What we know:
Elements: E1 19-23, H1 52-64, E2 69-73, H2 83-93, E3 98-103, H3 112-117, E4 122-126, H4 132-139, H5 144-156, E5 160-167, H6 176-185, E6 188-194, H7 212-220, E7 225-227, E8 240-244, E9 250-254, E10 267-270, E11 275-277, E12 285-287, H8 289-292, H9 299-311, H10 316-322, H11 333-336
Parallel strand pairs: 1-2, 1-10, 2-3, 3-4, 4-5, 5-6, 6-9
Antiparallel strand pairs: 7-8, 8-9, 10-11, 11-12
Helix pairs in contact: 1-2, 1-9
Amino acid sequence: MTSLPHGRLNDSYGRSVNYIRLSVTDRCNLRCLYCFNKENAYYIPHPKILSYEEMTRVVRICERLGVNKVRLTGGEPLVRKNFLHFVEMLKESSPSVALRLTTNATLLADKLDALKDLGLMRLNISLDTLDRDKFQSITGRDFLPRVLTAVDRAVSKGFRVKINAVALKGVNDGELFDFINLARNFPIDVRYIEFMPMGGCSRWSFENFWSANDILASAKSMADLVPASTESAESRGPAKMYEIKGGLGRFGLITPLSHHFCRTCNRLRLTSDGKLRTCLFSDKEYRLRSLLRSPRINDDMIAKVIAKANTRKPLGFEILDKRGRSPVAQKQMSSIGG
């Protein structure tokens, strides 16, 4: 019987981690302008990608360290072969861990019944525009009808759906009313995320940065917004949510730049090639793959590495401030995990 520590993922700032964002793959079937740059594109070789068994082992170790929520991300997680089998593996291995999925929804519609059967009922869907031509311009693919079909089916089947839209000034700032109406007419959370200066090929600039304060001011002119009541600790996240008077859904803002939430960060990230990142804005990584593949390293040892790494978890806004809003985290987002 091993002697793994329990509930010890606390850092030097008093923050406690109970949430892991696990990147299943760095591959994606979209080519979003703020994430992908074909001139600098790099894919992790398959032998370096963690197997599903290795990922399941990490989740099991983290569960014993107090983690009770895992978000499966990419790239686009649904492009990886046998993804549904992986979800089943996680449910069997770590039944107390709540599973979530972040997806672009282009491959989602025909997998909803299987996900529902597995009990994965919470979806974050990345969708930056409701205009078909603009969708193709942003993503490089004409897949908007697929996404909207998936959203409609997910809602009808009882999934908790959140739409995440990256706020891009000069690109999708003219669609705010349409997104608010989406939340007004359907039981969906629509959340605008401030564009972050991420990755070595980031296209972030002050010209295309649309601040949360400006978004909220515009949104309030379009709908009667009331701050949402306090959510449970289990469902609380970084978004500031608003009820829409007379609406079925909610509107929200995620503000990593203008109103950072680093002091309450409760998450770690594991890249698809087995690198633990304690902060999105920091390039500091802790390599778990070699430990997972060594016959001499047991779960206790890996748990101690994860716990030690977490004690060094930085305050991301300090990293951002030192860079003067120039790009941080030199990897592109598809390699880090959304």
